[in-house]
């Protein structure tokens, strides 16, 4: 039995004749008993018809049972007889139209009603076991791994206009008879849709909980081309609400329409739009089900053993310069393992294409977009790491692990204060001997003034930055070569310190050795960031 009260009768009567579906009528009566929406709509329709027919006959057994107070009320005297006369043929017509429509729709028997003027079929043929099964099949086909899901519904913007029109149609009755004061008190189409569908979808997916918050979202979108123009009058009444934006196809977004409806006066609305809304011949079209899993974050450290490998794809004027990159070599096996659709790569600083990164490697993190798999255990992560390491001898990763989005920010925290150690192969113009370079080992905390290097000036602003070389050591190789070890503040331009960058870095190694020097090779020996945590081998 529907939880309706005596006060709902004029509303039910008006909405039935306006062409509202039974579930939309429950919404406007603010019925919040979910089971009422789940029962077949033909059953609900019969109950509604019986409910108002009782009123016609001047007796109301339903409400007498559930609502003794309402039963004591006199029969709605403010309902003019003319309306009653209209009601009957309208309901009969609805019944016969329904038979015709039933043939066109494949599905259970309650899908044959005429298209509701408010929900445009969303709470009719698009709700129930058949659409739930279809939706679940679409989800299963994507082969996601998930424990729970959240259902999201996107409705055509014009539904708001129709809802508003319908609200104005019954506003007087609703306010007079009930506790409802505002359109917001009406149960939303989305809400009712979820009440009906969630349980059915859950059952189809083997009992997966359909909840309000989940990392996995299943989205259904409805469009209705026939009534797309319903919103257009709002653009003339409230041009401010409809400003073109770059990435939206239409200015008539749901948000803009809601905003315009809040501003428009009832009189103005009624001048431009029929009340109740006009009937349509077609119902909404469901679009493809969209599944989306929140990102998974992966962290680790990488070594780069190759002097011709950029960190990220190197493209100049649309043309690729190197066949691969650190991030691509790392990402490919990870994307495959998590069946993700894309990634964002970040790292603690970066090395030049000709610089190797040795030692424990450089911390990196990756955001995996829309992963179909989101959990790998320790053993599986270890296997994934091995796959990456076997796939190329140019790179190697360690400490590969799943991290939280929040933990990722730790990598960038205090990056400027961190230290890095390097080894540079240095050439000197003047011949040198061991003793001549020994003084380098005694230099501590040497502060450099570095003008933005010429080689990066095209992408960085001109500035002078102070950086500190904490310590250095020199290892003699031959009269024109030695290895220079450096421990520096992060962000120090080491190459420029060695060759001087035409005097743009001061002091520089040329000045210290009183001869021209150049850097032939550079290796990063360590990046002293204590994240991500080391994983024992
Ligand atoms: Zn409806």
Number of helices: 19
What share of the residues lie within helices?
Answer: 25-40%
The overall number of domains is: 3
Average pLDDT level = 88
> Which spans have pLDDT < 50 for at least 5 consecutive residues?
59-111
Largest β sheet strand count, sense and barrel closure? 10 strands, mixed
> Roughly what fraction of the amino acids lie in strands?
15-25%
- The number of distinct β-strands equals 17
Cα separation of the termini: 65 Å
Radius of gyration: 35 Å
Shape: elongated
Query: Which kinds of small molecule does this entry bind, naming each only once?
Result: zinc ion
SS-based class: alpha+beta
Brief description of this entry?
This protein has 537 residues and is of the alpha+beta class. Helix content is 37%, strand content 23%. It has 3 domains: 6-290, no CATH class; 295-412, 2-Layer Sandwich (Alpha-Beta Plaits); 419-527, 2-Layer Sandwich (Alpha-Beta Plaits).
